[in-house]
Design brief:
The chain has 268 residues and is α/β, with parallel strands linked by helices. It contains eight helices and seven strands; from the N terminus they run βαβαβααβαβααββα. The strands form two sheets. It has a five-stranded mixed sheet, with helices on both faces.
């Protein structure tokens, strides 16, 4: 198991925790998904060493307007384009993993209920022309994560690699680092005393759907889905707004368009 992380010191602490119960060694490697050069360096180090599972879990949420070293708006640049390049660079390893094991390799792309905020705005993905809204930008990036799974699976399932998107649920983690206490109170995420709303999941509960997507035998050969609560998400219905996926997050034409743009931007 490899934890590819921007902060290797924090990654080392997490690896030590995992190693207490892991059945195989846990190592840490440097990877900054906001910098495409860092992604290329990581995939070059990995080479075609067999890989059976890739979980695209990193992310940034609701940050002020900023741009990556490659000129991409930070949220879509990190959440989508960094992960796209990572997965593209690891396709030979994933294919080799499938051939070695006789089972499909899997890619799990972390999306969010936030995808409902925005489809991908292809005319101005990087907010060069339109006013910046941190939540719409986050929503666009999370839609992109789901569309990536649709397009990746369509292109690589014949090589023994499947991809699905996952909605982990609301979890109080450092992902909220760009939000003020007042914002979180206004959203009802915490109360005035800082107590977390009971609808939030623990980190372990939040990881459960990702783990299920990664190892569940019933998902062997299954891809292009949006998963939540250890099952396939239903279509969004206003009568039950806490669950469900919007059509724009699974639109095959939008997925193809995003794929083409991703190839153009990353060169992969």
């Amino acid at each position: 198991m490899v934890l590819a992380v921007r902060n290797t010191a924090a990654g080392g602490k997490a690896a030590a925790d995992i190693a207490r119960t892991a059945r195989a060694p846990v190592t840490v490697d440097a990877l900054d998904l906001s910098d495409l050069a860092s992604v290329r360096d990581f995939t070059a180090r990995w080479g075609d060493h067999p890989l059976h599972l890739l979980i695209n879990n990193a992310g940034v949420m609701a940050c002020p307007l900023s741009y990556t070293p490659n000129g991409l708006e930070t949220q879509i640049g990190t959440n989508h384009f960094g992960h796209y390049l990572l997965a593209a660079g690891l396709v030979p390893a994933l294919t080799e993993g499938a051939e070695k094991s006789g089972k499909a390799s899997r890619v799990v792309a972390l999306s969010s209920i936030g995808h409902r905020r925005s489809p991908v705005r292809f005319e101005d993905m990087n907010y060069r022309l339109r006013p910046y809204d941190k939540w719409d930008a986050y929503g666009q990036s999370k839609t992109a994560n789901s569309l990536f799974a649709v397009a990746f699976d369509q292109r690589h399932r014949g090589r023994g690699v499947n991809a699905n998107a996952v909605m982990p649920g609301g979890i109080m983690t450092p992902l909220q680092r760009h939000l003020s206490r007042e914002e979180m109170v206004d959203f009802g995420w915490i109360d005035e005393d800082g107590k977390i709303n009971e609808r939030f999941k623990t980190p372990e509960q939040g990881a459960s759907t990702s783990v299920w997507a990664a190892v569940a035998p019933e998902l062997e050969g299954v891809g292009g889905k949006y998963l939540e609560n250890c099952g396939e998400a239903p279509p969004f219905d206003k009568s039950n707004p806490s669950i469900g996926v919007m059509p724009h997050a699974l639109d095959p034409e939008a997925a193809d368009q995003l794929w083409v743009r991703s190839v153009q931007i990353t060169g992969a």
